[in-house]
């Protein structure tokens, strides 16, 4: 068994697609219309057949309070691995990404956290 797709709830699918592809560097994998919304996934360009991240609409009634609680408590919705946190922070900050946690050693990893502009905090980590 392996992970095929995982999702992150986003306030606006198009805005999320732009953020996750242009700023974070992911590649669009699927964009299938499903009525009012889309089956919209991105992947790492390093692993185009790897795990897909579904940019899922935040429309279920349980999602807005869940997302707000996570954000209020500074809990990331998901975490991505980078080779060099400091370099990633500098690159993303130069593109206007707002960091809520500067690079911080945490045991054997270094982490930082930013706002994805779609209702989530995202952690990046260097191991």
Question: What are the defining features of this structure?
Answer:
2,3-Dihydroxybiphenyl 1,2-Dioxygenase, domain 1, alpha/beta, four-stranded mixed beta sheet, about 40% strand
Describe this structure in words.
There is one protein chain. The chain is an alpha/beta fold and 127 residues long. It has one domain: Roll (2,3-Dihydroxybiphenyl 1,2-Dioxygenase, domain 1), CATH 3.10.180. Helices cover 24% and strands 41% of the residues. The protein has helices at residues 13-23, 63-72, 85-94, and strands at 5-10, 27-34, 37-43, 52-57, 78-81, 99-106, 109-115, 121-126. Strands 1-4-3-2 form a 4-stranded mixed β-sheet, covered by helices on one side. The protein has a 4-stranded mixed β-sheet with strand order 5-8-7-6.
Proper CATH architecture: Roll
Q: From the structure provided, what is the oligomeric state, counting identical versus distinct chains? A: single chain
Query: What would the principal axes of the Cα set say about the shape?
Result: globular
What is the helix fraction of residues, given as a range?
10-25%
Distance between the termini: 25 Å
Overall mean pLDDT score?
A: 97
Taking Cα atoms only, what radius of gyration do you get, to the nearest Å? 15 Å
Low-confidence stretches: none
Kindly report the CATH topology: 2,3-Dihydroxybiphenyl 1,2-Dioxygenase, domain 1
Domains, number:
1
Question: Counting H and I runs of at least 4 residues, what is the number of helices?
Answer: 3
Biggest sheet layout: 4 strands, mixed
Number of strands: 8
State the CATH class.
Alpha Beta
As laid out across the biggest beta sheet, the strand order is: 1-4-3-2
């Amino acid at each position: 068994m392996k992970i095929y797709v995982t999702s992150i709830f986003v306030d606006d699918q198009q805005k999320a697609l732009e953020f996750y592809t242009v700023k974070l560097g992911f590649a669009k994998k699927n964009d299938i219309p499903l009525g009012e919304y889309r089956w919209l996934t991105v992947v790492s360009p390093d692993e185009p057949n790897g795990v897909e991240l579904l940019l899922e609409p935040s429309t279920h009634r349980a999602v807005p309070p869940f997302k707000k609680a996570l954000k209020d408590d500074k809990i990331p919705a998901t975490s991505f691995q980078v080779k060099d946190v400091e370099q990633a922070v500098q690159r993303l900050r130069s593109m206007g990404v707002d960091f809520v946690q500067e690079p911080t050693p945490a045991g054997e990893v270094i982490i930082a956290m930013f706002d994805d502009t779609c209702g989530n905090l995202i952690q990046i980590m260097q191991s």
